[in-house]
Design goal:
The protein has 179 residues and is α+β, with helices and mostly antiparallel strands. Helix content is 41%, strand content 18%.
Length: 179
């Protein structure tokens, strides 16, 4: 896709690559994960700090702190295409629903990445319409109303099938091994 190529050219190498898909998709896709300190929890950038965003069907942007968290989780308990990470109870922020499903009240970083993989499936399906639709509806987050469908669907269908072997960048690997 043209958008993917533009992002890849402007952003340099990804911090790692993952296998991801939406549950209704038959095939796994390789998705590039780009990290920037502008998206770290401690960033002073308004509306950017602590955020993950799916830019295209093949590009997700995260903070370096989030990328480190995902890598640590995956080193402890790796996901695979045979055993993907999904969002427990199909919702990131509904702590009651998560607890009823026997999951922790707060999602793991890998679950958040699974949610973003759900958005990549939407981007594949919607093409150029993904940006205006996603940009407008993502702000509403998950919920019970029709306008929450976009976010609910990403959480309910997203699957993170693990980090692509050999794709972790040197700076990220050094950062995780030094702590």
């Amino acid at each position: 896709m043209l958008h993917d190529a533009v992002f890849r050219r402007l952003s340099g190498p990804p911090c790692f690559r993952v296998y991801g898909r939406a549950g209704h998709e038959p095939d796994w896709h390789v998705i590039d994960i780009y990290a920037t300190h502008r998206r770290d929890l401690t960033s002073r950038w308004p509306l950017w700090s602590g955020t993950c965003i799916t830019w295209t069907s093949g590009v997700i942007a995260v903070g370096w702190d989030f990328a480190e968290c995902v890598l640590r989780e995956q080193m402890r308990d790796p996901a695979s295409r045979e055993r993907p990470v999904v969002v427990a109870s199909g919702r990131l922020r509904d702590w009651r629903r998560r607890l009823e499903a026997g999951a922790p009240s707060q999602p793991s970083a890998s679950e958040v990445l699974a949610h973003e993989c759900g958005h990549t499936g939407q981007a594949r399906r919607l093409g150029a319409e993904y940006w205006p639709l996603g940009g407008a509806l993502t702000l509403f987050r998950e919920g019970r109303h029709w306008w929450n469908h976009f976010e609910n669907q990403a959480s309910a269908t997203g699957q993170f099938g693990g980090i692509v072997s050999g794709s972790v960048s040197e700076p990220l690997m050094r950062s995780v091994s030094s702590t």
